[in-house]
Write a structure and sequence with these properties.
This protein has about 400 residues and is of the alpha+beta class. It is built from ten helices and 19 strands. The chain starts with a strand and ends with a helix.
Length: about 400
């Protein structure tokens, strides 16, 4: 019998939470197959089978387990089960007009799990499936669920609850959520946080994307998004305003002659902030590839502890959720965070005329202990200048001013 122990995932981490088993009790697993997913206070990681054999699970999902504890055992002496015979293809059933009609009705709601009768009523009465509270197994909509929605138009119970219900649920807070909670409170209590705002005309960047996005994807096999423009602009501004890229350590100021930019990513399990290293040394395509890679890892809970630590500055994009303006909170020990928001057409005064321009509000939250008002405002104005004149991201300075040595 082989013991599978909880691996060490960091010097300061003493326990983890068992998120889920990916293999069943008594199931035969192959060597190196993933058998479980664990969550520490920093990241989610997988546990692999060290030998082939049958699995014996020693913990339940949701349990908190100490590092080094035995998570499971594998009986490596168990014989491998024979592969099941592949069943012969079934004969095609005759397609009757009634079945065709049923298929058409069901096809109206391909993404909705519902019984045939419920699907027929939804299609006939043009009921919004979002207004229906499903009571069937696995969230399937039943006939009575649709009739209940028709009987009470405009009323919708919470998912899994009844109309006029008073149910209260309690769930154990995950290690990741505990860490997020602790760090946010610590950030609020230990920094002198202020926020300064500005706005940027996104028209020039949108025009570049419209003109070059197809060729960019063909050449680099990655989409051209907004984040590469923002991270590259931030890297330039950070090099010019070094205190924004520094933090306080006791009685010392720690400066960084590089830009490791953290990108806030929302996942079902909570907020994660993976880091893109040395943004100042990367091309636009390399930044976009890294953003895409980290986003996929965050979604699939594959980020490592190293990918979540060590950033010098953070960018967060509330605009993807529709936020028009916000005051982002500093990601300690960093000293500043840039907030992106929703792009919205607004009337702007341009050369004495009113024009409709795609505008975005920018917010820079900063630690006033290390960053003065002049530096924070100038930093944000520089970000605005670089984004509204994307050629400056390459040249760093206006070409005419360079020519005139101004």
């Amino acid at each position: 019998m082989i013991d599978i122990k909880v691996p060490t995932v960091g010097e300061s981490i003493s326990e983890v939470t068992l998120l889920k088993w990916t293999k069943q009790e008594g199931e035969y697993v192959e060597r190196d197959e993933v058998i479980a997913e664990l969550e520490s206070e920093k990241a989610t990681f997988e546990v692999n089978a060290e030998k082939s054999g049958t699995l014996k699970r020693l913990s339940a999902e949701g349990d908190t387990i100490l590092i080094g504890s035995i998570l499971a055992q594998i009986d490596d002496t168990a014989p491998k089960p024979e592969a099941a015979a592949i069943p012969a293809p079934a004969a095609k059933a005759a397609v009757t007009p009634a079945k065709i009609n049923q298929a058409l009705v069901t096809a109206v709601s391909n993404d909705i799990k519902a019984t045939p009768v419920a699907s027929a009523i939804i299609a006939d009465k043009k009921v919004d499936p979002a207004s229906i509270t499903a009571s069937g197994v696995g969230g399937k909509i039943m006939k009575n669920d649709v009739l209940e929605a028709l009987a009470h138009p405009g009323k919708k119970a919470f998912k899994g609850a009844e109309l006029f219900g008073r149910n209260v649920r309690k769930e154990k807070m995950s290690n990741l959520r505990k860490t997020i909670s602790r760090r946010l409170v610590e950030s609020k209590n230990t920094t002198a946080m202020l926020t300064t705002f500005n706005e940027v005309d996104m028209g020039p960047i949108m025009e570049i994307r419209k003109k070059h996005k197809d060729k960019f994807k063909e050449t680099h096999q990655v989409n051209l998004g907004f984040m590469s423009f923002f991270t590259k602009a931030a890297a330039i501004a950070l090099s010019e305003w070094p205190t924004v890229n520094a933090y306080i350590d006791g009685d010392e100021l720690v400066y960084h002659d590089y830009a490791d930019i953290s990108i806030a990513v929302s996942t079902p399990r909570g907020l994660t902030v993976p880091v893109i290293r040395n943004v100042e040394s990367l091309s636009m395509a390399e930044v976009e590839k890294k953003v895409a890679e980290l986003a996929v890892k965050a979604r699939d809970s594959k980020l490592t502890a190293d990918e979540l630590t060590g950033g010098t500055f953070t960018i967060t994009n509330g605009g993807v959720f529709g936020s028009l303006m916000s005051t982002p909170i500093i990601n300690i020990p960093q000293s500043a965070i840039l907030g992106m928001h929703k792009i919205q057409d607004r009337p702007m005064a341009i050369d004495g005329k009113v024009e409709i321009r795609p505008m975005m509000y920018l917010a820079l939250s900063y630690d006033h202990r290390i960053i003065d008002g002049r530096e924070s405002v100038s930093f944000l104005v520089r970000i605005k200048e670089l984004l509204e004149n994307p050629a400056l991201i390459l040249l760093g300075k206006d070409p005419v001013k360079s020519l005139l040595e101004l």
